[in-house]
Structures are given as structure tokens and as C-alpha cells.
Amino acid sequence: MICVAEEISLLTRQEQQLQRTLDNLCGQRTLVKEHKQLEKELAAVLRKRQNLQAYAVFELGMPVHRINSSRLGIVKELKITPGGMGEVWVSWDELLQTPEQPNLLQIDDAARAKIIAVGDRIKIVDGHKEAGKTFTVVRLLARGALETTDEQIFEREEWQKIKKAFQEPLETANEEDEELTNSASFTQETQMVTQSTEELNEKAPKTIVTVDTTVISTKIEELTEDEEKERHRLERKVERAFYEAGSALRQLRDRRLYRSTHRTFEEYVKDRFGYNRISAHYRIAAVEVIDNLLTNGEQILPTSERQVRDLAPLKPDIQRQVWQQAVDEAGGKVPSGRIVKTIVERLKEKPLIKASDFCQIGDVFILTRLEGAERKYNGCWAIAQELRDFTIAVDVHDNTLAVKPDNLDPIDLPDVRRQLPETLRRIRRLRRAGLLSRCVYAMLESLGRQTDLDDFEAQLLTFMEERYGIEN
Predict the structure, then answer these.
(1) DSSP labels, 262-273
(2) How many angstroms separate the Cα of 146 from the Cα of each of 110, 346, 349?
(3) Pairing of strands 105-107, 121-124
(4) CATH number of the domain to which 20 belongs
(5) Residues 310 and 405 in one domain
(6) What's the CATH code of the domain at 148?
(7) Would you tell me which of 101, 307, 346, 457 could form a disulfide with 453, CB atoms 3.0–4.6 Å apart?
(8) How deeply is 55 buried, as exposed, middle or buried, from its count of CB atoms within 10 A (0-12, 13-18, 19+)?
(9) DSSP 343
(10) More confident residue, 47 or 170
């Protein structure tokens, strides 16, 4: 394991040395190739230094979020790749850990300061449509945002934490408490607790604390058969309330029954119901999802629009699959919108492939679909050097990269599999020989794309080794 601070210091010195060399080459037209090669090396050193500097600020257990993302994660592991690059492994929403580039992560100061916790109560500030209402926190998001029990999301500036009082007055009991008082019998017990004060050298008198313990016994009444039927009828009415509202909105829109008073459907629902365009669209889309679920004979159906909001963009068969999975995860009950949303997010993410299930050390590949600074290696051959959880460290002609299985196309030719490790060894020895001719750098880069060497290429590689005094 490298010392990150020492490595950053070393890379800084290399960067300064390369920059001085580049400055000395400026204006020398005959050394254009050398200039370009040095620029590539400088860019690689700079990228590595910036990566390690970004990596060095993270610690295990630290809350983080991706830039421009609302997901909150926890740092679970810090790793250095064989190529000397830092990776931060983050658990998102307590799901699977994934490797992240340090420069794309930010420490979440709000979560780190623990300004709010799951289970706390919040009050919505003035200026918001929910102003004055109180909610319970069920999930923390990035930058102080949070999600409440009714699956609403509020940004940091939209809420205030409600401080817990030491003892709430009896007058604040809610309606549920009053009903419980009328239907339950109470037995009060007074316990006398004596606290000794010997540590005060018996100068203080014994303290007597009185604790009232309330024991509640609730009487459960059985319903008659008619009452059971009435209860079921009313429950179904509550469950279908949002569905009937959405169906009515759909008919009002499709039949243009608003045309006598308003030019557009959006203006009509705003004036008549207080809905904005998106709210009305969500309710109508929810009806279409319910209709689709009914075609599959679903017994457990959604009871709110929020539970199916994330299903609306999906294809009908996918909607049914996701809903059934959500019901299973909810223990056979109606799932919350958060459960549905989590399943949809997992569905959108391409499943990760474990490196050990994909290849073995020494296997050879062609690199594809690389992005950013590593795009230049697309089409190069690579050799698996280390298998990690979901990434593979591969050696290329002038570097070591950490890539995903998706970036590797296997080469199954036996002769190529035997020849490439030897070719890599010879190229690496040449590159360590010192400052090479620009022709040599160009040739080595070309060989990094040739999966097998013809006679001329093999002779040319031997000539370069002899020219720089490298013995096989």
C-alpha cells in the first residue's frame, strides 16, 4: 500500500520536472514528437496527482454524494488500484457497494453534522405550499434534503427541525389519545425509588423520586358480519378514491368538458381543483397503471398516486413485474412509493458483473467503450492483472487501468494468449530504458494495438532492444 501523501509529493516533483522539460523544448520544431509524448506523460501524472488529492480527503464511514445527485451514500472502503489511482467504494441507500472516482464525489456536510435523523419531526417553513405542516423523516438525502413518511421530498431550506420537548402538556393529546382513554382501563402504580448519596459524604439527604407507570389494557371488540362487510366496502372506497379522481380527470381531459369555461385543460384543473399540470398528469398516469395491473388480476393494488408514479414511464409488462416485486418486498402488503422507486432505480442500473465470474488473471482482451481520458486505449490489447469485486486491473502497453467487464472483449486465440504477455514484458522494458526516440515511442504505441506481431514487427522490436542495450 502506497503512502498517499508521499505519492502526491513524488507526482508533484515529476510534474514540475516534466513541465520544465517541456518549456525547454518549446520552439524546437524538430522535436515535435518528443513534445507530444512529454505532454501525454505530463497529463497522466497530473491526472494521477489530482485523483490522489481528491482521494485523500475521504474516510471510512463518511457521508458523501455524487455531484448533481440527491442520493446519499456512506464510504465503505478506500482502495488504491495497481496503477496507483484511488477509488472510493460507496454504499448507496444501504444497497450494493460501487467504486466511485474521488473527483466526482463530495463530502455531505449536512449529513456529517447530523442536523437531522430518521424519525425526527420537521415543520415546513413559510412560502412553501405545505407551510406549517409537520412530517416525520424516513430517509436522508444529499445536502440536507429529506423524504417524509408520506413520501414527499423537501430541500434543506424548506424545513425546520422540531425540537423535542422534555415533557409535553396533557392538553396536547391528540384525538387518538382521547379515543384510547375512552376505550381502555388504566391502572396507575406509584414506585418509590431511593437514590443513595453516599458519594456526597452523606451531607445531602436521600432523594425520593416518584415515577408514575401507566398500564394500558385495551378491550378488543369483535365486529358483526354486517359490520365486517361495511368496513370492507369503506376500505375499498378509500383505496379507490385516488383512482376514481384520476379516472374523472381523464374523462374531463379526453372529452374536453372544460371547453365552455377554459381554453386549456391545464388552466381548468388549476382554477377548479388547484392542481398544476404535473399533478393532474400524475393522477391520470396512475389510473393507466392501475388499469394495467388489473389486467393481470392483481389482488393487492396501489392506494395512492405516489406509489405508482415511478411505474408510469415503464412498459406494461415491466410495470406488472416491478409492482409484484414491490409487494413481495413489503411482505405481501401495499408497498410504499419509496420501495417501488428503489426497485425501478435498480432496474435502470445495469447489473454489475463480478470480476471472478468474468475472467481469470492472465486472460487477454481488446479494450472497448472507454470514456474520458482513457478513451485513447480503445482498440488496444490488455492483460488481466488483478481481479477485484466488480472491476479488473489490466495492463496495457504503457499503463495499468481499472476497467469493468463491459469494457473488455475476450480474445480466444491460443497463439495470441501466449504471445501477448511476452510482448508486454519487452515493451515495458524498453519504456524503462530512458528517453527514447520519438520513432520508438510511436512504434511502441502501435505495437500496443497489434494482437500478434508479423515477422517485420518482431524484427523491429528486436532491433530497438539492441539499439538501447536491452538483452533478452
Answers:
(1) -SSHHHHHHHHH
(2) 11, 20, 23
(3) unpaired
(4) 2.30.30.30
(5) no
(6) 2.30.30
(7) 457
(8) buried
(9) H
(10) 47
In a domain, 472, yes or no: no
- Residue 168 inside a domain? The answer is no
Q: Sign of the C-alpha dihedral, residues 313, 316, 318, 322?
A: positive
- Our count of domains for the chain comes to 4
- Asked if 1 and 405 touch (Cβ cutoff 8 Å), the reply is no
C-alpha cell of 27? 520552439
Minimal CA–CA distance to 308: which of 290, 333, 296? 290
Task: Taking each helix axis as running N to C, give the angle between helix 265-273 and helix 277-295, from 0 to 180 degrees, rounded to the nearest 10.
Answer: 100
Phi, psi of 57 (to 5 degrees): -85, -10
Q: Let me know if residue 185 belongs to a domain.
A: no
Helices (H), 304-384: 316-329, 337-348, 355-358
Could you count the other beta carbons within 10 Å of the beta carbon of residue 243?
22
Write out the residue range of the structural domain in which residue 422 sits: 355-467
Give residue-wise pLDDT tens across range 364-406: 999 998 887 788 899 999 999 998 878 899 999 989 998 989 8
In-domain check, residue 329? yes
Q: Are residues 78 and 143 in the same domain?
A: no
Order across the sheet with 121-124: list the strands. 153-154, 146-148, 134-140, 121-124, 159-161
Q: How do residues 340-357 score in pLDDT, each as one tens digit?
A: 988 888 777 666 677 888
